[in-house]
Amino acid sequence: MAIVSIPNAVATSERPAKSRRINRTRLPAALALLPTALIVLVVYIGCMLWTVRLSFTSSTLLPKLDWVGFAQYSRLFMNDRFLVSAENILIFGVLFISGCLILGFLLAVFIDQNVRAEGVFRTIFLYPYSMSFVVTGVAWQWFLNPGLGLEKLVRDMGFESFTFDWLVNQQMAIYTIVIAGLWHGAGLTMAILLAGLRGVDAELWKASRIDGIPVWRVYLSIVLPLLRPMVVTATVLLAVGVVKLYDLVVAMTLGGPGIATEVPAKFVMDHLFERNNIALGTAAATVMLITVVAILAPWVYAKYIRPQGRPA
Amino acid sequence: MTTVIPQGSRPRRLTAGRIGIYAFLITAALFFTLPLWIMIVTSLKPMDEIRLGNILAWPANLTFDAWVKAWSSACTGLECNGISVGFWNSVRILIPSVILSIAAGAINGYALSLWRVRGANLLFGILLLGAFIPYQVFLYPLVRIFSTTGIYNSLLCIIIVHVIFGLPTMTLLFRNYYTGLPIELFKAARIDGGGFWTIFFRVMLPMSTPMIVVAAILQVTGIWNDFIFGLTFAGRENLPMTVQLNNIVHSTQGERAYNVDMAATMLAALVPLVVYFVSGRWFVRGIAAGAVKG
Amino acid sequence: MSAVSVRDISVAFETVRVFNGLSLDFEAGEFIVLLGPSGCGKSTLLNAIAGLMDISEGQIWIGGQNVTWEEPKDRGIAMVFQSYALYPRMSVRENMSFGLKMAKTPKPEIEKRVKQAAELLQITHLLDRRPDQLSGGQRQRVAIGRALVRDAAVFLFDEPLSNLDAQLRNELRVEIKRLHARLGKTTMIYVTHDQIEAMTLADRIVVMKDQLIQQVGSPSEIYHRPANMFVAGFVGSPQMNFIKGRIEDTGSGPIFVSGQRRLPLHGYTFTSTPTSNQDVVLGVRPEHLRIVELGAWPEFSVDVVEPMGADTVIWCRDREGSLQVRTSGDIRLSPGEQLNLGIDAAQVSLFAADSGERL
Questions:
Q1: Same domain (yes/no): B192, B286
Q2: Do C69 and C148 form a contact (C-beta atoms < 8 A)?
Q3: Chain mean pLDDT for chain B
Q4: Positions of CATH 2.40.50.140 in chain C
Q5: What sign results for the dihedral spanned by CA atoms B198, B201, B202, B203?
Q6: Where in chain C is the domain with CATH 3.40.50.300?
Q7: Number of domains in chain B
């Protein structure tokens, strides 16, 4: 014991002198960061742990600090509403992300063809992104409403038997949310990818013209691989948006018809603030947290951890 | 028959490919503009025309009644004072939140990029990860904290929440910006004897106008469009416009007045749309800056 | 028949039109360097020949064909770029064979050509690497290799060495010259702002400025008989000395006079007859000024001495102004010393003071 404590004593006796000198000039900087540090500690870490802790209790209207193990989680995964939510977010996530990437890439490529009124097109494709999900949801709810919207429009044009009732159809309602989401988010993907396209070395294009490579082939074989960082960035941004999906559903369908368009974020909100089931709500929130970590982990690994090991 | 000698500029033919490009772009443009067009025309029609007429058609009897009603007398739940209440609530939330979150981001970014404070990287790392965590994870404990301190359901409460959750993006934005400035500038200011705050206010802040504009665009649209925080923290007296819009649309009393709904929607979309159209390329820059998260 | 012929071309940009009917012929097997400062139009001309930039008037002929409206790939050209422009996610082999693959060349033929080009450029061991695993010099070799496999009659180089450091630049410069000799009948058009590259590589140099051709000629002509003051000043380092003065006719032939300095001009080959008392500028290269015991131009004092190893540049001045003299590396002089300069009228250039054109 005594032997071990000697180096420790040396270390502690040397360190204060050194750090005191450093701290005197950096003290204001440290003080300036203090509020943020507190917020990170209390909100970002503290609240997160609190939520996780609550998910292991039997809290209903008011928080309790008992311990019921994984009881809430087994209830959660037996809960129809939650299972529908999980399935919906999966459908929405896959379609929304792939849809935004494909549509966004196409829009970016087509805009990049030296077209007239490029600025007008760019402005039109991106403006939905500036508006809230509530506005987006309300607008699409109105447009897709079968009685007076698109369905009536087509019927009035003479196609009497045309039906487009996805908004009120249990099976299809989630896809209307995907459409509204695409409308809102495809422009963002376009903007990110277009910035990438504009960054491609002009001499690469010249070289490929000399080599006689068809334009579509250049995009696919040469440019798209170059855009990989932008595609990854866009995907991560979109994925985060997917997990947070809430306002759009509330504004557009309120989770209906029935529970057809419930999503996890809404499940959590409802159980925390309306259904007085804090433990189940926090359990669902914890599941969301784990999902996000699972999505982010490979990205963080690829971006920050692997490159240090060997060149990518 | 004469053959044309190739001379001068290449003849520009309108090839099938070019037509295809424009066809695609115009179709896409229609998809993106259609909802906005429908919102506008619907808001300008009386209800009869909406029920019978074509949803795409320009109003036959153009009227601004719906806009007036949406602004001043539409029912948001039990009260019927229109969405103007929400508009002013949003303004009162927006201004302090934007100013405070930009100030916090600038100071954080400056301290993190130019002053080597121990643990700063860890702090920044957690903050960035925090940006990706769904808000639902923080909400309930935050509500408890605010209830205990007695500021829950107040203007102050919602402003604090916006500042807290604006921290990651704002800090990142300014940190990246200050990191990109020539470090010699900072060194010269240190040699001239500037301290932390002197250098910040005299040297760094005056150079930050572009980032402040970008940050303002991001925050104004972000905070104006917020729904979940307003719903959870603002309290009944201070509900922002998005929440009130949702209440109007989903109000169960009487027949749905689509023209009023659409007018209210347009009113709620107005501020971000104006920001978008006025800022133009800056908006894209803001997205790009926000998009390099991590 | 010229290998490449540019006939009366103009290029229209959004607001300006350049060249205004520029014509230029390139002979088969020739190595031509387009030389000029940035913005002089040399790259625009090269891009127009390649078909990467549309011309608004005139014609471009390559190999006896009018290719004015042809796609770049159909012009029988190959091109090497400053930024290498290698396809980033493809291996060296894929980079070199991509164009041939697109042209539906049979596989064995592609392999043969890639192999030959790789051997010629000594990059066989790099064939399976990716561009980001190569050094700058290796990348440019690959880019040249990609051009080689196209088997083109005309090679276009757009500042290919400008991204490389000095050592590599010298190495590859020699390599390109060797390549040109090995290929025999290949025409090479090479754009650069570096006069050393131009002098060492070119059979003929085309000096350009402000989208206009200033002079076309062999490196020796460009250097020794520059057509105007711009060419004289742009080519050569240290720069040519310019001395303002006037021509006087003393009866025994024209004499250049600049204050105390006088130079009888017999031995100078006039391209046009000067008028007496015409204002002129005398150009003399630093190495054509000699330090002599009893010289035509006395009473210079040494200002600065710059030893450069093989030779020494001496800045000296008299009442009229400062001149640079290039002399052998072993000379010993220190600032303040007096010296006399000798000058040979056969080695100078005379320019009209108003137009800057050679007299």
A1: yes
A2: no
A3: 87
A4: 241-352
A5: positive
A6: 4-234
A7: 2
B3 secondary structure, DSSP code = P
Of A51, A47, A56, which is closest to residue A288 (Cα–Cα)? A51
Cβ of C99 within 8 Å of Cβ of A204? The answer is no
- Greatest extent of chain B over all pairs of C-alpha atoms, in Å: 94
Amino acid identity, position C159: E
- Give pLDDT, residue A267: 93
Was domain C4-234 assigned CATH 3.30.70.270?
A: no
Pull the structure tokens for residue B268.
Answer: 């709620």
For residue A6, the model assigns a pLDDT of: 38
CB–CB of B7 and C56 under 8 A? no
User: CA A174, A177, A181 angle in degrees (round to 5)?
Assistant: 140
CATH architecture, range C241-352: Beta Barrel (2.40)
Please give the pLDDT value at position A88: 93
**Whole-angstrom distance, CA of residue C342 vs CA of residue C289:** 6
Distance from CA of A85 to the nearest CA of B (A): 15
Query: Where does residue B3 rank: exposed (0-12), middle (13-18), buried (19+ CB within 10 A)?
Result: exposed
List, as ranges, residues 68-127 from C with C-beta within 8 Å of B.
68-70
Q: Rounded to whole angstroms, how far apart are CA atoms C32 and C191?
A: 9
**Residue B171 in domain:** yes
Nearest alpha-carbon partner for B107 in A44, A39, A41, A237: A39
Q: pTM for this structure?
A: 0.83
How close A206 comes to chain C (CA, Å)? 7
DSSP A152-189: HHHHHTT-TT----GGG-TTTHHHHHHHHHHHHHHHHH
pLDDT at B289: 65
CB-CB contact of A97 with A178 (8 Å): no
User: Can you tell me whether residue C150 is helix, strand or coil?
Assistant: coil
Q: Are B189 and B52 contained in the same domain?
A: no
Q: How far is CA B20 from CA A218, B23, B26, in A?
A: 18, 5, 10
The Cα A221–Cα B277 span in angstroms is 36
Residues on chain B touching C23 (C-beta within 8 angstroms)? none
Q: First CA to last CA across chain B, in angstroms?
A: 66
Residue A13 — pLDDT band, cuts 50, 70, 90? Answer: very low
Give the pLDDT confidence score for residue C176 in this predicted structure: 93
Domain-located, residue B263: yes
Q: Which residues of chain C are modeled with pLDDT < 50?
A: none
Q: How confident is the model at residue B253 (pLDDT cuts 50, 70, 90)?
A: low
Element (H, E) at A68: none
Question: Residue B291: pLDDT band by 50, 70, 90 thresholds?
Answer: low
**Residues facing C343 on adjacent strands:** C289
CATH fold group of domain A75-309: MetI-like fold (1.10.3720)
CB C176 within 8 A of CB C168: no
Chains with 3 or more CB pairs under 8 A to chain A = B, C
Q: C304: Cβ–Cβ under 8 A, 6 or more apart, which residues? A: C314, C315, C335
Instruction: Sort residue A117 into left (φ over 0), alpha (ψ -120 to 50) or beta.
Output: left
Domain that holds residue B244: 84-291
Question: Residue C283 pairs with which residues in a beta bridge?
Answer: C242, C349
Interface test with A, best of C89, C113, C130 (most A CBs within 10 A): C89
Whether B53 and B104 map to the same domain: the answer is no
Q: How many residues does chain B have?
A: 294
ipTM higher than the 0.85 cut? yes
Q: Which of A200, A204, A209, A210 to mutate to test the interface with C (most CBs of C within 10 A)?
A: A210
CA distance A207 to C139: 14
Instruction: Tell me what pLDDT residue A219 has.
Output: 92
- For the sheet containing C289-292, what is the strand order? C289-292, C338-343, C297-307, C311-318, C321-328
